[in-house]
Amino acid sequence: MSHIEEEFEEIERNYGWNMLFRKLANDHGVRTLEKKNNIALLNINRGLNRFRDVLPYDDTRVRLQHGPNDYINANFVEVPWANRKYILTQGPLPSTSEHFWQMVWEQNSRVIVMLTRLIEKECNKCWLYYPDYENDSELLYDAVDLKVTFISEKQEEYYTQRKFELTNILTGESRPIIHWSDFEWPDHGAPSSPEPFLQLLCDVRQSGAFDSRFGAPILHCSAGIGRSGTFVLVDSVLKMIAHSDNPNDISLVEVLAHIRTQRHGLIQTAEQLRFSYMAIAAGLKDLDELEQCERPFNESDFDELSESDNDNDSKLSKSLEDINSELQKRVNNSQPLSTANDVETSLRLRQERLKRNEALEKKVNEMKAKLHEQSPSSHLNDGKNMSILSVLLTKYRRPIFFGLITLVTGSIFLYKFTKSNDRTQ
Where does the Tyrosine-protein phosphatase domain start and stop, copy by copy (predicted)? Predict the structure, then answer.
């Protein structure tokens, strides 16, 4: 029996989870007494926080590299003993979705793990910041010059894997993104069994989330501290134990205390702490399998899609022959065979994406040509004229109308009055 299991059983026998959680909370308060979150409290940034009491520490916060404001509610969380680095953030708001994708691009991340539903118990927990094809197959974030395109979706037993293409509109560069979501995990609670969570952990590792060639994986739930913190704790402790000569020296409590100094409030409840022990104890029994899960990020699937888009546009028709051709191609390459419906959906999406890209490129070129023709001064004057005209035609339309009527009526009256006086004299 491992020392983690022994600790778990002892705490369980003594009904000590609430007591341990309170002790950890007190220790956390002492350790973070000098930590500041002044940037998050600036007036310009207050509205960018989902929760008023979940704010990123100044020293570990992620800074946006471009734009007028570098703030996003996100922190780097590192566990050096496990050679792990994560980015933990809140579930995007309507006003911060563009910042979220800007962070994904600037940090060169390839994997996103979403540990919340959009709506839970009739409460909004996260904005729909990604295209799911049921609503949109593509989302355009003009303010940060990024475009997110839906590529494919795969429904697993306990969660969903989606693939996106993230494109920089200015440079034309595209990057593949893997997105995990729809995992059953109640807010402020924990799953009933650790097995589905360990399967998710294995698949996330297998997707190449921790490939050192790319940026850290991005984890978020609603606040970005409870479920996300549990994921970090379980993954990092299992990694440490797998590569330690003295696994009994590894303290789950100390690792939790360490990651809490990088983002406030990681692991929100005693129940989540208990689940962390359970998941680690269960993971130790399959530790070799979990280690074998970890692989580099594989871009071959995305590269194949890009080649098909760029070099074989004529093949992207709706005919059954194209679908069969795609199926045969995957068989020849010894890749997992999707269903005909999946391939048909993928081909249709790529055809739509090609058309949108052409339209977008044409529109961008037209805008650039117009901007090139106009000088800065004329541009400013046009903006001023349009602004004044807009105000006159909207806000003051009624007063101007009545004013003109009054002016005309008064002029006629004055004219008649003057003529009458002349006749009298």
Answer: 4-283
